[in-house]
Every structure is written in C-alpha cells, then in structure tokens.
Amino acid sequence: MFLQITCVVLILSELAAAAVAAPLAKPNCPDRCGDVEIPYPFGTTKDCYLNKGFLITCTEPSSSPAQPLFGNVVVTNISIDGQLDILNFISFQCFKNSSGVLDDDNEPSLRVLNFTISNTKNKFVAVGCDTYAFLHAFQNNEPFSIGCTSTCQSLRNVVDGSSCSGIGCCQVDIPKGLKNFTLDARSYDEHVTVGSFNPCSYAFVAKQDGFYFSSDYLESLRGNKTYPMVLDWAIGDTTCEIAEHQPGYVCGRNSQCYNSQNGDGYLCECISEGYEGNPYLEDGCQDVNECEADQNPCNTTTSTCKNTDGNFTCICLDGYEGDGKITSGILGCRPIARANKSSINIIIPLAISIGLVGLFVGGSSIYCGLERRKLIKLKEKFFQQNGGLLLQQKLSNYRASMETTKIFSAEELQNATNNYDESRVLGQGSFGIVYRGILPDNKIVAIKKSKICDRTQIEQFINEVIVLTQINHRNVVRMLGCCLETEVPLLVYEFITNGTLSSHIHDKNLSSSLSWEKRLKIASETAGALAYLHSSTSVPIIHRDVKPANILLDDNYSAKVADFGTSILVPLDQTELSTLVKGTFGYLDPEYFYSNQLTEKSDVYSFGVVVAELLTGKKALSFDRPEKDRSLAMYFNSAVKEDRLHQILDDQIVNDVNINAIDEVANIAKWCLSVRGEDRPTMKEVAMELEGLRIMGKHPWVKADLYTEETESLLGPPTHSFNIDVYNGSSSTITTAGLESMRTQVVKPLDHDGR
After folding, report:
1. Is 97 found in the same domain as 56?
2. What total number of domains does the chain contain?
3. Which of 25, 227, 438, 614 stands 20 to 30 A from 713 (CA)?
4. Which stretches within 144-298 are classed as H helix?
C-alpha cells in the first residue's frame, strides 16, 4: 500500500510540474478573463502587462461570464503569434421609410498606436444597395483611405456568398501597416428608392474566414452592433537588430526575435519544436519532454529514450546498433551482424575508399555541365517569371519596338547601384523601389526595382514597359532600358535631379522658391505632356494616376511626367474602357469611380486637382479640414463659385501684377474639375490656354498670340472657346477665328526697311 501511494504521489507531482512548465502570464498574475486566455505581454492588473498599450480590462458582470475589453471593444482571443481577435463596431447610416430622412448613423474609430489591422486575416466590407464606404487610417504616419461602392435596384441580382462583387455588397483587400482607423458608411441617394428592403448603408472590417454575405444583411444587419476582426500586434516600433541591444528587450531564454510583417516592431518565438511556452516571459520557453509523449519517438523494444534540452536521443540496447529513432516506420536500432573482425577491418575501409573515388570522378565529370544548365534554366525561369513572354506578346500586339531600348545585364545594374545599397535609394512606391545608378560612362540613371509579388504586379511592370516604349516627349520621363534576367524585374530611366512637384509644393523650405512663373510653367508643360499622351502617340495613353508625386522637376524646373505603372493603352476604335478603379484618393475622377468607365477626361480631372494644389499650396485630401472641405477639388470649386478664391490662394504667388492670370488659371482648373466628364475640356484645350497665358506673362505686348507654332504643331489649332479676362477683368469669348484676327492686328510684320 505504501509503495502504491508513493507511486501516485510521484505521478501527480510530475503532472503538476508539467502543468506549470509552460506559463502564459507573469507569476502571480491572472491568466484568464472569462473564456479568454490572457498571455503576457497582455495583462489585466497592475504590473501584469508590458505597458498600457497591452492592458486588458476584465469586466465582472453579475449575470454573465467576465468579458475582456481592449479599449471599448470585446476581445475574443489573444495569440502569442501576434494576433488579437476582437468584436469591432459596425459603421452605419440609416434612413426612415424611404423618406430620405436620416434616422441614425455611427462612425466608429479605433485609435491604437502600436497595433495594425491584419492585412492577411481581414477584408474591408460595405453592405447596401445605395452605398459607398471608406476606411480612413494612417500608413507610415500619413493619412490613407480605401473604399468601395455597392449598388442594386432590387433583390433579384443579389447573390449570397463569401465574396462580394459590388451588387449589394463590396469588399477590398486591406493594405499593410494601417493604424488608427475610422469607418465611414454613406449613401448616394438617402436609400429613397431601395428603402423598402435596404434602409441602411453599412461598413466594417470583417475577419476573412468568418464572413459569409447574405441578402438578409441588407435589412437585418442593423441589429448587429459589432463584427469579428483581427488586429496584428508587436513589441515597440524598432527591428530586432536594434531592440536586442536596448533596455526593455522582452524575448526570454530559449527564444528568438523576428520582425513584424505588418508595420513596425518585433515578435518572439521559441527557438525550436523542442521548446514550448510563452517566449515573452524570462523563462517562458521550456523544454518539451519528447520521451513522455503519447507516441514514443524511440522503439522501446530495441532502445531507450533520453530527453535533452530541446531534443531527445534514442540509445540502442545491447546487441543493437543505429540511432534508435523510428523513421518512416523503419526501426533505427538493428541487430549487430556477427562477422570475422579482421574481415570487417579490411572491407569497411576499402568500401569507403572505392565510394569516395567513384563520387569524386563522377561528380567532376558532370559538375560543369550541371552548373551551365542550372544557370540557363535560372535565367529562363526569371525571364518567364518577370513576364518576358507577356512582354513579347504585347510588343507584337502594339507593333512597338525595343530597338532604341537597351537590354541591361544583371551585373551592369548591380554594379551601377553598388549592389543596391540603401544609400542609393531615391524613393519607394506601391510597386517598387527606385535607386540612383551610375553607369560605366558616368551617366546617372534611375533604376526601378519591382517588388516580389503576385502576377498583378508583374503585369504592372510589363504594362509600364509597353507604355514607355510608345512615348517620346521632352516633358515625359524617358525609359532607357530594362532587365529581365534577375529575380525581380528592373527598369532604367533618365535621372531627374530636382525631386517631385509634391515635395516642392508642400515643403515650406522648397515652396518659397516656387514662384508663380515657375508654377505656371510646370502646369503648362504637364498639360502639354498629357495632351501628347492622349492625342499624339501611336496608341492613345491614359495615365490614370496624375498627381504631384508623379511629376518630377529638373534643375530648370521643367516638368517630367513619371510613373506609368497604372497607365493603360486605349484601342483606337474605343473612347472609353471598363476597368477596375485605380488611382489615388483626392485625385480620382468621381465619374470614373462611380461608373468604372475610364476616359481621357479622367486624367483631365486629376490634372485639375494638381493645378488647385499649385494655386493653394494645400493637399488634395486632408482630414485636418472640415468634412465637407476634406477634398481639395470640392473646396476649390466652392471657393471659386462663391468668389472666395483669393482667400485660399498661396500667399507666396499673389501680387497685383499676376492676379488676373491667377484668376484665369483658377477658371481652367474649375473647368477641369467639372463633375461630368463631358463638361470638361480636352488636354489639348487646357495645354493651349495655359501656354497662351505663359506667353502673355513673358511678352505682355503679344496679348493675342495665345499659342506658339510649336504648340500648334503638337496639339493642332484650338477648337474650344474660353472666357478670358486677362486685361480688364471683364469676360469675353475668344474663338479660333478671333485669335487669328487678334494675331493679325497685334503682331504686325516688319516693313521692308526693318521698322
């Protein structure tokens, strides 16, 4: 009996030791709140969490289980792998009985500095038949927005399912690094025509594997206040390489650090499968005793198991040899063969020697051949991976030629960028990184290295090559060549020395040197480049992302239109294209956003926003302005319409000499920002008007010569009448015929004697 009791006590003590071997919370701290485990660095009481950013409030209602709250949202699960499952609030806007009268709305926000929206576990969803919605957030400390639109006239075409096509429901992938977000659901027509079955617009972030759209949501979702979503969390805002040498580093023993894949900070994990536990505690990762597992890793009939730190070994019993482990059902320990000892001493070394000689001879004979084949296959793989076949096909389709475009080798571009050193980085965008390169002839170039990504980005790269081979204009960045034999595709451009127009407008130190004459020159040259793209290339090109960040300046402040990654070639027999909406919020044509119908007038609208930025010095989209004035386009049009233009102009460009010219440019911008595309001018007309204003500024005695011979040969004669009040503030309509008449009267030919 005493022996039995002793065995039971030993077994229970071992089980108790195993139970505490892998703690989740700090010592003497609660590790649960209701049904949710609370692992460190999170905690519910003082001294139990890393910092206030990881505080979980555990409620204690009398009639239900305790609930963990993160801020004001309910937590459903916390993973030490860096994920926090929550129930976030739904944004909604509801109206009464198809009357258009607002009933209720909600615009929830979640302000958490160190946590990001998981881009792999969530999607942004809007539900409704008269709905558009936005997710406003911050990415790299800059405002960022995504959105989508959902419409339907009845329930006939609404389809239940896990994906949303824009009929009753739409969805957008979540980009990386979004923090401090606000949800905003809105209606186009106050649900007047659809209110009987859909009185509300909804917007929320949904956990991907937890969302299944139902047509019932159009009416019943109002009863749901929250929806499951996932946040990614990390420690601090530095990388492992920096944090490991700073006080406050939290990865414990037997753990290793790795950088967050979504935003800043780092995470910890146990160093191998031989350890388990919470790596954020000092002794959190503890050894796993594999010998006590349900399935013993050793064959107990031929070996014994011995646990080691992070691993185990199998020791063969007497009469057996091997490593003792069971591999693919084969016993590791096998009986020792009985043989003459002297024979074994001769056979084993001889067999080893013969095998080594054979391996050496055979390996030497095929090594060079294999290496050559490997190199050829690797280049072929990269060529296909980087869209080489697609490039050949498109070049054939558009009858383009790369005879004037150099094909660079990988070694040339690697040497030009000093092996892509970080000090050579000029900038980073959505589809790649741009490096400063120096070729062997000391020519400075810009090299765009695309990011490793899915097929969509490879198509973006090939599209940019195709677009740029069609372009030859002094105000468009020139492509010098490309390289397809590397793991990521490369494009080589001419190097533009003076940075982006965006930095010159919005940097206080640079904007002071951006005079009115320079701004008018930049606007005129940009308009001429876009007019060339629309009208003078072999196949019309729509840029689709016109903004100051994509307009570069050289040392003479000449404009260079850049970044054709989202551009599209328009077949000559079509005037509009149905495409997925691409572009930048604030510059996006509202008609294109609503209808998905892309035309040249979409570039005209974006250019109008650029001109408004040049005139006001304000950003195209700013959450610091009141909601109705967040969009610069609406703010600018309203100011011009209400005769408040001079109140919003950039003080650095206004004086008595140029105020009339500024008014004219403002009228051109307002014309470009017309809501309907058919009410906007063509880029030809805009370029002609701006060039005319430049000439008047340089030579006020030639007030009627509104376009030069160079402009006329490039754009053709003007075809649109436009109100001009440059001289005395009064409006007068000048047509093509009127211009010719004025030119004849004002610019008189010289007499025969030269007077």
Report:
1. no
2. 5
3. 614
4. 217-220, 240-243
Six token digits for residue 231: 């946040």
CA distance 513 to 653: 10
Q: Does residue 701 fall inside a structural domain?
A: no
Select from 685, 658, 653, 679 the least CA-distant residue to 524: 685
Residue 597: alpha-carbon gap to chain centroid: 23
Please tell me which residue in 545, 563, 589, 650 is annotated as part of the active site.
545
**Is 519 in the same domain as 577?**
yes
* Rounded alpha-carbon distances, angstroms, from residue 751 to 745, 748, 755: 15, 9, 5
Residue 545 falls in the annotated catalytic set:
yes
Distance CA 70, CA 82 (A): 15
In this model, does residue 629 exceed pLDDT 80? yes
Structure confidence by residue, pLDDT tens digits, 142-169:
999 999 999 999 999 898 887 788 999 9
Q: Which residues of 338-350 are buried (b: 16+ CB within 10 A; e: fewer)?
A: eeeeeeeeeeeee
**C-alpha dihedral (694, 699, 700, 705), degrees to nearest 10:** -70
**Sign of the dihedral defined by the CA atoms of residues 364, 366, 369, 374, in that order:** negative
pTM above 0.85, yes or no: no
- As separate numbers, helices (DSSP H) first and strands (DSSP E) second, the chain gives 18, 39
**CATH number for the domain harbouring residue 423:** 3.30.200.20
Query: Which secondary-structure segment (H or E) carries 601?
Result: helix 600-616
What does R_g of the chain's alpha carbons equal in angstroms?
34
Region class of 179: left (phi > 0), else alpha (psi between -120 and 50), else beta: beta
> What is the C-alpha separation between 653 and 617, in angstroms, rounded?
10
